[in-house]
């Protein structure tokens, strides 16, 4: 009798594992194949591309680089190309950011990189990231986030941050997705300013599987891609996914991001270098090959300059 019960449990767990595996796409057979001058062959579905071989910094509606902590430089990108160097001084919290706008925005200050008329509800963004081989302290908190900004004062209808794990998700050496909503479940805007924490609904984080910031992983380039699809009105079917080197690392498919809110769609992606407690040491990380798209971007083919 006990053996029968045990067999039944084993079969059920096996079926569950098989079903879960079926939901997760197989990884690219040749992971992390960066491209130099990727933007020269931009695809129609790409809203924006920046490989930093050309200076496109003016296309972001905000570019901050306190004390020259976040600068475009030669030879720091993939395959020795140009890229963005991030330098954290010991104890530094804010090392700069790139803020990109697209689609319909609530303010002319948020100048879009496209026609500025589209209400996007499905979005992918990809960035290459490398940390110094001697990097220490975990992921350094903020990396990127897509958002729906709904007013000139930056009220957030939702946010989709990709940042290093912490708090309720132990493991600062991992990336995590941590979705939040700035509306109630019906879709009424509840936030009154940017990062209006008392009025945000946190929807539940999911941690990645690879500790890319521990001592055995730092020093190499990682291709980091995220995907957001807003929920349909009245449903909890919003999606948030994270890939590293084309491996699916984390996924949520049950999100009520914005209720029935539809005044604006996904209209900003921020690439941030903000370490809440400050960097424990003077150290660098590097960013390259940004793409924002309406379809999967993936990791590029290896092309030399």
Question: Could you explain the architecture of this structure?
Answer:
- Strand 14 (238-244) and strand 15 (247-255) form a beta hairpin.
- The radius of gyration is 20 Å and the shape is globular.
- Strands 2, 5, 7, 8, 9, 10, 11, 12 and 16 form a nine-stranded antiparallel beta sheet that branches.
- The chain has one domain (43-293): Jelly Rolls.
- The protein is mainly beta.
- It has one helix at 2-23; strands at 46-50, 62-64, 70-73, 83-88, 94-101, 122-131, 142-149, 156-164, 175-177, 180-181, 201-202, 206-207, 221-229, 238-244, 247-255, 268-274, 283-293.
The CATH architecture can be named as Sandwich
CATH topology title: Jelly Rolls
Largest sheet: 9 strands, antiparallel
Question: Helix/strand-derived class?
Answer: mainly beta
| Strand element count | 17
Radius of gyration: 20 Å
Which blocks of ≥5 consecutive residues have pLDDT under 50? 1-30
- CATH class assignment: Mainly Beta
Please report which band the strand proportion falls in: under 5%, 5-15%, 15-25%, 25-35%, 35-45% or over 45%.
25-35%
Mean pLDDT: 89
Large-scale geometry = globular
Number of helices: 1
Q: Kindly state the percentage of residues in helix.
A: under 10%
* Secondary-structure element pattern, one letter each: HEEEEEEEEEEEEEEEEE
Termini gap: 67 Å
Count of discrete structural domains: 1
């Amino acid at each position: 009798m006990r053996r029968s019960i045990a067999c039944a449990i084993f079969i059920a767990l096996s079926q569950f594992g098989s079903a879960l595996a079926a939901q997760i796409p197989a990884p690219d057979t040749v992971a992390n194949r960066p491209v130099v001058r990727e933007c020269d062959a931009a695809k129609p579905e790409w809203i924006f591309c920046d490989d930093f071989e050309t200076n496109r910094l003016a296309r972001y509606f905000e570019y901050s680089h306190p004390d020259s902590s976040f600068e475009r430089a030669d030879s720091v990108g993939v395959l020795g190309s140009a890229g963005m160097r991030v330098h954290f001084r010991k104890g530094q919290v804010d090392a700069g950011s790139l803020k990109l706008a697209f689609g319909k925005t609530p303010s002319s200050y948020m100048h879009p990189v496209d026609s500025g008329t589209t209400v996007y509800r499905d979005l992918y963004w990809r960035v290459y990231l490398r940390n110094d081989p001697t990097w220490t302290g975990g992921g350094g908190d903020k990396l990127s986030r897509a958002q729906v900004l709904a007013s000139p004062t930056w009220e957030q209808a939702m946010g989709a941050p990709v940042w290093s794990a912490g708090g309720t998700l132990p493991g600062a050496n991992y990336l995590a997705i941590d979705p939040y909503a700035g509306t109630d479940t019906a879709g009424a805007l509840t936030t009154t300013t940017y990062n209006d924490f008392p009025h945000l609904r946190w929807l539940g984080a999911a941690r990645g599987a690879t500790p890319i910031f521990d001592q055995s992983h730092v020093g190499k380039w990682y291709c980091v891609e995220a995907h957001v699809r807003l929920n349909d009105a009245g449903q909890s079917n919003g999606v948030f996914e994270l890939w590293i080197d084309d491996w699916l690392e984390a996924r949520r498919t049950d999100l009520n991001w914005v209720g029935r809110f539809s005044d604006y769609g996904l209209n900003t992606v921020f690439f941030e270098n903000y370490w809440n407690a400050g960097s424990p040491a003077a150290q660098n990380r590097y960013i390259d090959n940004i793409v924002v798209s309406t379809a999967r971007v993936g990791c590029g083919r290896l092309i030399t300059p």
